[in-house]
Task: structure prediction
Amino acid sequence: MTETSASTQAAIRVFRAVLVVAIGVALGWFVYGNVTNPAATYPFKLGLDLAGGAHLVYEADTSDVQPAEVNELMGVLRDVIERRVNIFGVSEPVVYVEESSFVTDEPVQRLVVELPGVSDVSAAVAEIGRTPLLEFKLVDQEALAIQETIESFEAQNQATSSDGPRTEISNVRVNGATTSDPYLDTDLTGRFFERAEPMLPQNNSGSGGFQASPYLTITFNNEGADLFEQITRDNVGEQLAIFLDGELLSAPTINEAIPGGTAIITGNFTAEEVRELAENLNFGALPLPIELASTQTVGATLGAQVLEHGISAGMIGLSLVIAFMLLWYRVPGLVAAVALLFYVVSMLALFQFVPVVLTAAGLAGFVLSLGMAVDANVLVFERMKEEYRSGKDSRAAARDGFARAWSAIRDGNITSILSAVILFWFGTSIVKGFALVFGLGVILSMLTALTVTRTLLIALPSLTHQGSRFGWLYNSGFKK
Result:
């Protein structure tokens, strides 16, 4: 190799090393700017246990649902509630479905809602509770007549109870039949809902009437439109009751089959009530009734303490790893320390870009990944030491060290990534936070070890183990 080509190669190596350092500095500046700027475009997203907030658990009533449809309806319920809480301004809400333990006789479907930064639990519960449950039911006229008769008996009984002994009517029979629910399920619920529009009173004389008060038109999706048409076609002359959150709004008579998937909800509404009802329905009609089972509030002060302790643990762990690498591996250890700092700022920038919602478990995964981040460097440096002591110069030893250590690095990182994937796939939300950060850390640490560390090592001046005053700088341990 000529002197000119050697100098050119050296210049290229130095340029690559400077470029890597410049990228690391730029990433560090980006992270620092977003941390110190309250109005940053890419802030860190903190989870409930770090930012504080509300943890709500709802139980869904699936008693009237076919077992095969439970998972689908719970998915729809999750999407509806997530859309709902996003609309009223909660930052990074977490909504997920979980099933009760197998210990219980019948699994209970639960919907967990985590609202970081929300301290007023009652307001959050009220906002979610405003989401309506829309149901269409056919009216059983005979059962309705029995129910009305029994209610009449009860009213008379209450009126006369002060004058004489009360008569028990719990087993009242009318024409030989006992009372039953007069409203029959049609399977037409809010799961088929598409949109709602508020309508003002208008003259519908051409179609047979005048709407005296504001009303609501609702449109179903394709599946709901077909079901609605079938219900109206098969039950001409019957009443179709419309319930909202269990309250009967109206029960119009079906005069003919209604194609197109559009229904009208009437009632004693004001214009404001119709607008609010349309807004609530458009935000999401619940496919299943839900009941609030438990609430928990995480204080912002407690969250701040957890975050502070997590940052302190990360700083201590980073310092100890860097100190060990410097003492044991000397110049390669210094390069590994620079690569580790590059890894840290890269991970923090990734948290801001993706964005990853950081939880206490996620911080634990990040702290653990700091030790894993130098694992590849240790393998390379041990291989490099063997090549260096065999007589090769430091640059050639670095190249051969990376080549020989690559298979071990690859296999070790693949097993770690597979573990993270399994934890993320089968774990709960807390475990998923740990698995996500840990998995990203393993992938990024492998990339930094193969790019940053190698680029910087090859750019350094080449030394030999024998005959060089500073050759001991590439050794490891306590011996020169």
Q: What stands out?
A: The longest strand covers residues 290-298. Confidence is low (pLDDT under 50) at residues 167-177, 204-209.
